[in-house]
Input
Amino acid sequence: MAEYRAVARGESADLLLLDGTHLVSDALSAGLRLHHMMVAAEALTHADIHALVERATSRDVDIAVASVPVMNAASPVRSASPIIAIAARPVLASRIFAGKAPLVIIACDVQDPGNLGAIARVAESAGASGLIAAGQSADPFGWKAVRGSMGSAFRLPIAMHGTGAEAIADARRHGCRIIATVPRAGAPLFDADLEGSLAILIGGEGHGLSAQLVASADERLSIPMQAPVESLNAAVTAALVAYEARRRRS
Output
């Protein structure tokens, strides 16, 4: 139980916490190595739980049966799911810039883990090649971000950089044009050049991208908004830009 709480607090850089049948199932399907699984005794007869236990057993996962109070103590979620697990973090970062024309989302200082998880979900669904969490961004493999990604964090190549400048430099080394999303004065989204290898900068909640990061970009892009709306949620911005890029490339 203590190990589950430690992983939830982010004290292990190599592990992540899975809470719920959907995430456990997706992790197994993605080939993640599960270190341990805990199942509520009352749920063992449920068909979906039984199927997951059988899948985990076939992979020699250590499984413990616990009472609901123990499950609640082990999980950081207010009301724990009937199945939780600890798994190895995926190692896909080397594939972020794969392909002839990669489309990479760089989340800069996106501190809300739910937002960062949603950006991962958007990036995968729109066909982006990867996500970089930079600066003061939340841990993309923290339990809240993983829940927000709905399993996309297991399949989408994700990397972390200490600063947005480091992430930009990495993207440039791989031949990407850098496009900064700004609330106003950028090229309108529907007129912007979204072809070729791109890295899209998405700013964090509140202040958005720093002036330094915007200045270092090759181009600036703005999403048309009806007044008096001044800005959009980071995940919404990522979704609009990523899907517009997908539409162009199709």
